[in-house]
């Protein structure tokens, strides 16, 4: 059992090294030798954890997706009494990676997204990462719609009846991804992107 725990920890250590190198040089600049040097392990250690570079990249992408998902869950747990609509805003903000401390992670994530367009193994992993995030959005939107319908207002009930939680979840997930891209290339500032996100969420119930 201790060896298994060490193996998992080492794979995560290597994944973090991949992230640092990808942020600095892009995925094309990630080599097994450089990863070993950055992780301060031997080439043999890297090869025992991953048979190929593609296997290493697939694991790293899954590792990033898990980290984002964990942040979203932690943000929701910290404020259990908040409304579903407020929780949705918090979750969307975490996924959009707009804050300065998440900028490096956003660059790496988008590098993987670009590569996934021509790599089915990465695309499969990316879809698996998006799925639980979309389900979280769907659940929160459905809960917020139920709360709006039960508010006692006829207008609120009418608005809630028009909301398709799954469609809105897909729309929101695509929006936060797009906002991340626009901030990274300098088309939008983080405050401008936040304004777009908040305006979209407000229109769900307008």
Short description:
With 206 residues, the protein is mainly α. The protein has 10 helices and no strands.
Strand-helix topology:
Elements: H1 2-25, H2 32-39, H3 43-49, H4 53-78, H5 84-96, H6 103-116, H7 120-149, H8 154-162, H9 165-184, H10 190-203
Helix pairs in contact: 1-2, 1-4, 1-6, 2-3, 4-5, 4-7, 5-7, 5-9, 5-10, 6-7, 7-8, 7-9, 9-10
Question: Which features would summarize this protein structure in a list?
Answer:
single chain; 206 residues; mainly alpha; elongated
Structural class, judged by helices and strands? mainly alpha
Poorly predicted spans = none
Number of helices: 10
Shape descriptor: elongated
**Gyration radius from CA atoms, angstroms:** 20 Å
* Average residue-wise pLDDT: 89
Q: Helix proportion of residues, in percent?
A: over 70%
Beta-strand level of the residues, as a percent range? under 5%
Order of helices and strands: HHHHHHHHHH
Terminus-to-terminus distance: 55 Å
The strand count comes to 0
Largest sheet entry: none
- Give the oligomer, counting copies of the same chain as homo and different chains as hetero: single chain
Description:
By secondary structure, the chain is mostly helical. The protein is 80% helix and 0% strand. The chain is built from ten helices and no strands. Helix 1 packs across helix 2, helix 5 runs antiparallel to helix 7 and helix 7 crosses helix 9. The longest helix has 30 residues. The radius of gyration is 20 Å and the shape is elongated. The chain starts with a helix and ends with a helix. The mean pLDDT is 89.
């Amino acid at each position: 059992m201790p060896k298994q725990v060490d193996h998992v920890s080492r794979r995560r250590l290597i994944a973090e090294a991949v992230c640092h190198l990808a942020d600095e040089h892009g995925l094309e600049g990630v080599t097994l030798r450089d990863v070993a040097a950055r992780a301060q392990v031997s080439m043999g250690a890297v090869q025992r954890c991953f048979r190929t570079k593609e296997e290493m990249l697939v694991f790293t992408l899954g590792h990033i997706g898990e980290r984002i998902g964990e942040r979203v869950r932690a943000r929701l747990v910290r404020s259990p009494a908040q409304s579903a609509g407020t929780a949705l805003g918090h979750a969307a903000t975490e996924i959009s990676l707009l804050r300065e401390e998440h900028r490096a992670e956003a660059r790496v994530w988008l590098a993987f997204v670009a590569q996934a367009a021509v790599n089915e193994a990465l695309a499969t992993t990316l879809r698996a990462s998006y799925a639980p995030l979309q389900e979280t959005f769907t659940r929160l939107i459905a809960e917020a719609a139920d709360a709006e319908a039960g508010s006692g207002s006829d207008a609120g009930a009418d608005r809630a009846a028009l909301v398709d939680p799954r469609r809105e979840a897909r729309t929101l997930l695509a929006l936060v991804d797009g906002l991340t891209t626009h901030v990274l290339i300098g088309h939008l500032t983080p405050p401008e992107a936040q304004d777009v996100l908040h305006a979209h969420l407000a229109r769900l119930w307008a």
